[in-house]
From TrEMBL, chain A:
Membrane topology: Multi-pass membrane protein
Any Pfam family hit: BPD_transp_2
PANTHER family: ABC TRANSPORTER, PERMEASE PROTEIN, GUANOSINE ABC TRANSPORTER PERMEASE PROTEIN NUPP
The keyword Transport is assigned to this record: yes
Natural source organism: Hespellia stercorisuis DSM 15480
Identification of the protein by name: Simple sugar transport system permease protein
This protein's UniProt keywords: Cell membrane, Membrane, Sugar transport, Transmembrane, Transmembrane helix, Transport
UniProt GO cellular component terms: plasma membrane
Transmembrane segments: 20-38, 58-79, 91-110, 116-137, 198-216, 248-268, 280-305, 325-345
Alphabetized CDD domains for the sequence: TM_PBP1_transp_TpRbsC_like (cd06580)
UniProtKB/TrEMBL annotation, chain B:
Subcellular location: Cell membrane
GO cellular component, one term: plasma membrane
Main subcellular location of this protein, as a coarse class: membrane
Classification via PROSITE patterns: ABC_TRANSPORTER_1, ABC_TRANSPORTER_2
InterPro entries for the chain: AAA+_ATPase, ABC_carbohydrate_import_ATPase, ABC_transporter-like_ATP-bd, ABC_transporter-like_CS, P-loop_NTPase
Molecular-function annotations in GO: ATP binding; ATP hydrolysis activity
Protein name: Nucleoside ABC transporter ATP-binding protein
Keyword Cell membrane assigned: yes
One Pfam family named in its UniProt record: ABC_tran
Organism field: Hespellia stercorisuis DSM 15480
Keywords noted in UniProt: ATP-binding, Cell membrane, Membrane, Nucleotide-binding, Repeat, Translocase, Transport
C-alpha cells in the first residue's frame, strides 16, 4: 500500500519540474537583456515584485489580472482535454461580454441578486454558442478548428466594434469614443476588499478551477472527454461519441470565455468599448501551457502572469525598464515550456556512465544466474 | 574459422541491454536460424550486422577478416542483404525502379532497360518471375517479398537476412520461399532466418542459434533436435505446455448470426462479399486467412465500428446491423481489437484509468456520474492479480508495461465483463510463448463457460488448435467452413489462396 502511495506521488511529480525551470531560464535571459539595454535587472525585479505584491492594493491588482487569465486558460484547457485546440477564447470573450452588457445596461429595476446572475448566464450562453459554432463547422464540414477559431475572433471583435459604434452606442457620452452605456448599479460585481478593485469574480474563478478538477478527475463524463482527447480510435472502440464529446467541450470552453468577458465588464470596465479586451485569449493559452492544463498549474501560472502585468508599471517607473519586457518574459516562458526537450539534453559522458553502470548490473546478474 | 562470426557482441540502449555477449558463427552455404521470443534480441543483432546499429562491444568477422560496417549501404557493398519484416519498397514506383533505387552505379540518366534485362534473367533463374514494369502496389504481399529478395540478390548479396519471412505468407507461398532458399544455398549463398516458428526452423534450417533475454543460449544442429518441444524449452528456458486441453462439448443455441454480409469501403472496394456463418454458445469459430482479406472489416461490422452495406448481423436474436458500438457492447459482446496500441489502450493513462474504459457506467465503478476511485482501484488490483499482469501497481502508466502485460490487462478487462460473445482479433500477436499460451487458455476457459468466441488469427496452428469451426476468408469471401477435425494445414492453405470448398463455388461457376 505504501508502494502505491509512493508511486502515486512520483506519478504526480513526473514532469512537474519543467515549468519551474522554464520560468527560471526565462527570467535569467530577460535579466541579461535588461542588463544589455543598460538597466539594472535587480532593481527591475525588485520594483516588479513590490509593484505586484507590495501593498494591499498591489495584491488586489494582481488578483484582478489573474481572474480573466484563469477563465481563458480554462477555456483552452477544457477544449484541449478532448483534443480540440481552441484559439478562439478571444472571440468568445467578446461575444460573451456583448451579451452580458446588453443585460447589464438594461433592466435597471432588477435586484442585484437576479441581475448579476442573469448577466453572467447570458454571457456564458453567448460565449458557449460561439464556441459551438467553431466545433459545428468542424463536425459538419471538417473545417480545422485551429483556423476557424482564429477567424471567428476577428468576426467577433469587428461585430462588437460595429455594435458599439451605433446600435448600442451611448450618444449621451462626454467622450467622442464610441462606447456603450454604463452598467447599471444593480449589475456591478461586489467588491471583496475595501479600497481595492478586487471583486467576487475571484471566487467564481476559483470555483471554476475546482469544478474543472472535479469534472476531469472524478466524473465519468470528464473521463470520457479525456479519453476522446487522448485517442479517438480508443474512444470509438469503447462506444463513445467523439463528435458529441468534442462539442460538449467546446461549448464549455466558450462558456468559460464568455463568463470571463461579462465579469470583466461588470466589475472593471463598466461599459463595453471597441477592442476593449485586446488579444485576451492568447494570454490564456500561455497560462494553460505553463500550467500543464492542471487546475493547480493554471492557478499558479495565472498568478505569475497577473503579477507580471500588475507590477510592470512600477518597474517602468522605478527602474525605467519598458514594460514591454514583460511580454518578453511571457514569451520566453512559453517557449521553454513548449520546447521542454531542450532540458532533456544529455551529455555523451553521462551516457557512457550509464552504459558502464548497466554493464556492471548485467555482469552481476550473470554471476547470480 | 567460420565464414561469418559475431564475437562477444553487446548492444546497450538507453534503458535496456538488448544484446549481451552474443556469439554467432555461421558457415558458408548454410541456413542458420535465429530463434527467440519477442524482445530476445534477434532483430537488434541482425541490425548490427546490417549496419543499422553499432555494437557497444564485440567484433564481427567475415571470411576471417575483421568487419566494420558503417551503415546499411556499406553492408550491401560487403554482400550482406536484409529482407525486413515490413518491406522497404516504394509502392508508387515500378518494380525495376525499386530495384535500382539508391545504387551507387546509377548514372545521371537511368538505363532501366538494361537493368530490367538483368533483373528478368535473375528472376527467371530463381523461378520468381515478376514483371519489372508494373508498380509495386499492384503486387501481392508474397510477390513483394520475392522482389525484396531479388533486390538483395541484384546487389550481389552473399549473406541474406530474412526477418520473420513467413509471417505474411500462405502455407503454399511458404513452400515456394523454401524452394528458393534451398536453391540459394546450393549456390553457396548463406541465409540467416529469423523466426519464432519452430516448425519452419525444423524444416528449412541446418543450424539454430537460440537467443534468450539478449544472450546466446546455445547453437544446435537442427537434425539433432528431437521435436519442437525441445526447441521451445531452449527458447523459453523452462518446459512449456504447448498442448491445449480442450473438452468435447456440444454447442448450444445460436448467439451470433452473420448473414450475407457485404461491406464496401470508401474506395468502393468490396472488402466483404456475402459472408455467412453463425456461432453457438460455447463454440470457438476461427476466422483464418492471409492478412487483409476482410478479417478486419468483418470484425468491425460485427462490433458496430463499421456498418455493413448489405446483409445482417444478428446478436442474441436482435438485428444489430445498424446498431452502435455502445449498444453492442452493452448486449454482452467483448472485443479484443487487432491494434492494441491504437484501439485498446492509452499509453499516457495509468493502468487504473485504462481498466475502467468499458465498464465506466456499471455499478461499483461510478455512482451518479462520479467515479468511485477507491472501489475501482481495489477491483483493478484484484484484476491485475488474477490476470497475472506484472506491474508495481495500478497507478503505473500503461505505456511502461511490456507488450505481454499490456495485452493481459486488455484481455482481463474484456473478460471481466463476463461476455456472452467474445470477439478476439490477433489476441496474442507479438507476445511470447508464455503469454500466448496464457491467453489461449483463457479463451478456452470462456468457451467452457458457454461464451461464443470469434477468433481471428493468421497463425494456422492457433486456429486449428483452438477452433471448433474454421471459416476461411479470401479476398472478402468465404472459401469454406471446416470442422476442426477435417482441417489440415494443406487444406486451409489452399483455401486461403483462393480455392473453394465444394458448396462454396461462385454462383457463376455453379451455373456452368
Amino acid at each position: 500500500m505504501e508502494q502505491t502511495n509512493k508511486n502515486k506521488v512520483m506519478q504526480f511529480l513526473r514532469g512537474k519540474q519543467y515549468p519551474f525551470i522554464a520560468i527560471g531560464v526565462a527570467l535569467l535571459i530577460s535579466g541579461c537583456i535588461i542588463k544589455a539595454m543598460g538597466f539594472d535587472p535587480f532593481l527591475a525585479l525588485k520594483s516588479l515584485l513590490s509593484g505586484a505584491l507590495g501593498t494591499t492594493n498591489a495584491w488586489g491588482e494582481t488578483l484582478i489580472k489573474m481572474i480573466p487569465l484563469i477563465f481563458t486558460a480554462l477555456s483552452f484547457s477544457v477544449a484541449m482535454k478532448s483534443g480540440i485546440v481552441n484559439l478562439g477564447a478571444t472571440g468568445q470573450v467578446y461575444i460573451g461580454s456583448l451579451a452580458g452588457t446588453l443585460i447589464a445596461t438594461n433592466f435597471a429595476g432588477l435586484p442585484a441578486i437576479i441581475h448579476i446572475p442573469l448577466a453572467l448566464i447570458a454571457g456564458m450562453a453567448a460565449g458557449g454558442a460561439y464556441g459551438w459554432l467553431a466545433i459545428a463547422l468542424k463536425n459538419k464540414f471538417g473545417a480545422n478548428e485551429l483556423v476557424t477559431t482564429i477567424m471567428l475572433n476577428y468576426i467577433a471583435i469587428q461585430f462588437v466594434n460595429y455594435m458599439v459604434s451605433d446600435p448600442i452606442r451611448d450618444y449621451g457620452a462626454t467622450t467622442a469614443l464610441p462606447q456603450s452605456r454604463m452598467v447599471t448599479d444593480t449589475a456591478v460585481l461586489t467588491k471583496i476588499i475595501p479600497n481595492t478593485r478586487l471583486h467576487i469574480g475571484l471566487f467564481i474563478a476559483i470555483a471554476a478551477l475546482i469544478l474543472y478538477y472535479i469534472l476531469f478527475w472524478h466524473t465519468t463524463k470528464g473521463y470520457e472527454l479525456k479519453v476522446t482527447g487522448l485517442s479517438q480510435s480508443v474512444s470509438k472502440y469503447a462506444g463513445m461519441n467523439v463528435k458529441k464529446n468534442q462539442t460538449i467541450s467546446m461549448v464549455m470552453a466558450g462558456a468559460l470565455a464568455g463568463m470571463c468577458g461579462v465579469i470583466e465588464i461588470l466589475a472593471i470596465q463598466s461599459r463595453i468599448t471597441q477592442d476593449w479586451a485586446g488579444d485576451i485569449g492568447f494570454d490564456g493559452v500561455a497560462v494553460a501551457l505553463l500550467g500543464g492544463n492542471t487546475p493547480v498549474g493554471i492557478g499558479l501560472s495565472a498568478f505569475l502572469f497577473g503579477m507580471l502585468s500588475s507590477g510592470a508599471n512600477k518597474m517602468q517607473m522605478m527602474a525605467k525598464v519598458p514594460n514591454a519586457v514583460i511580454y518578453l518574459v511571457q514569451g520566453l516562458v512559453v517557449l521553454f515550456v513548449v520546447g521542454r526537450n531542450i532540458f532533456i539534453w544529455k551529455s555523451k559522458k553521462k551516457n557512457e556512465k550509464k552504459i558502464e553502470k548497466m554493464k556492471q548490473a548485467v555482469h552481476k546478474e550473470q554471476v547470480e544466474v | 574459422m567460420a565464414y561469418l562470426e559475431m564475437k562477444h557482441v553487446s548492444k546497450y540502449f538507453d534503458r535496456v541491454a538488448a544484446n549481451v555477449d552474443v556469439n554467432l558463427s555461421i558457415e558458408k552455404g548454410e541456413v542458420h536460424a535465429l530463434l527467440g521470443e519477442n524482445g530476445a534480441g534477434k532483430s537488434t543483432l541482425m541490425n548490427i550486422l546490417y549496419g543499422v546499429y553499432h555494437q557497444s562491444e564485440g567484433e564481427l568477422f567475415l571470411d576471417g577478416e575483421k568487419l566494420h560496417i558503417k551503415d546499411p549501404k556499406d553492408a550491401i557493398e560487403k554482400g550482406i542483404g536484409m529482407v525486413h519484416q515490413h518491406f522497404m519498397l516504394i509502392p508508387e514506383l515500378t518494380v525495376i525502379e525499386n530495384v535500382v533505387l539508391g545504387m551507387r552505379e546509377n548514372k545521371a540518366i537511368l538505363d532501366l532497360k538494361a537493368a530490367a534485362q538483368k533483373f528478368e534473367a535473375m528472376s527467371e533463374k530463381y523461378g520468381m518471375h515478376i514483371n519489372p514494369w508494373v508498380k509495386v502496389d499492384m503486387l501481392t504481399v508474397g510477390h513483394q517479398q520475392r522482389l525484396e529478395i531479388l533486390k538483395a540478390l541484384y546487389r550481389n548479396a552473399n549473406i541474406l537476412i530474412l526477418d520473420e519471412p513467413t509471417a505474411v505468407l500462405t502455407p503454399q507461398e511458404v513452400g515456394v520461399l523454401f524452394k528458393v532458399i534451398r536453391q540459394l544455398t546450393a549456390e553457396g549463398k548463406t541465409i540467416i532466418f529469423i523466426s519464432h516458428k519452430m516448425n519452419e526452423i525444423m524444416e528449412i534450417c541446418d543450424y539454430c542459434t537460440v537467443l534468450r533475454r539478449g544472450r546466446t543460449v546455445q547453437t544446435v544442429k537442427v537434425s539433432d533436435i528431437k521435436d519442437k518441444q525441445e526447441l521451445a524449452t531452449l527458447m523459453v528456458g523452462h518446459a512449456v505446455e504447448l498442448n491445449m486441453h480442450k473438452s468435447i462439448k456440444e454447442p448450444g443455441n445460436v448467439i451470433l448470426k452473420v448473414d450475407k454480409l457485404t461491406y464496401t469501403n470508401k474506395l468502393k472496394v468490396d472488402k466483404l462479399k456475402e459472408v455467412t456463418f453463425d456461432i453457438h454458445e460455447g463454440e470457438i469459430v476461427g476466422i483464418c486467412g492471409v492478412d487483409d482479406n476482410g478479417q478486419s472489416e468483418l470484425i468491425k461490422c460485427i462490433t458496430g465500428n463499421e456498418t455493413a452495406t448489405k446483409g445482417h448481423v444478428t446478436i442474441l436474436d436482435e438485428d444489430c446491423t445498424h446498431a452502435g458500438v455502445r449498444h453492442i457492447l452493452d448486449k454482452g459482446v467483448s472485443h479484443i481489437p487487432e491494434d492494441r496500441h491504437n484501439m485498446a489502450m492509452i499509453k499516457n493513462l495509468s493502468i487504473n484509468e485504462n481498466l475502467i474504459l468499458m465498464a465506466l457506467k456499471k455499478d461499483g465503478y461510478s455512482k451518479h456520474g462520479f467515479i468511485d476511485w477507491k472501489w475501482v482501484t481495489k477491483h483493478n488490483q484484484e484484476l491485475c492479480r488474477e490476470y497475472e499482469v506484472k506491474t508495481p501497481d495500478v497507478n503505473e502508466l500503461a505505456g511502461n508495461l511490456s507488450g505481454g502485460n499490456q495485452q493481459k490487462f486488455v484481455v482481463g478487462r474484456e473478460l471481466d465483463r463476463n461476455p456472452k460473445i467474445l470477439v478476439a482479433m490477433h489476441p496474442d500477436r507479438g507476445l511470447d510463448i508464455g503469454a500466448t499460451k496464457y491467453i489461449q487458455r483463457r479463451i478456452l476457459a470462456e468457451r467452457e463457460k458457454g461464451t461464443g468466441v470469434v477468433l481471428v488469427s493468421t497463425e494456422l496452428d492457433e486456429i486449428m488448435e483452438l477452433s471448433d469451426k474454421i471459416v476461411v476468408l479470401n479476398n472478402g469471401e468465404v472459401m469454406g467452413i471446416l470442422d476442426q477435425k477435417e482441417a489440415t494445414v494443406e487444406k486451409l492453405g489452399l483455401m486461403m489462396a483462393g480455392e473453394r470448398m465444394p458448396g462454396y463455388e461462385k454462383e457463376s461457376d455453379a451455373l456452368d
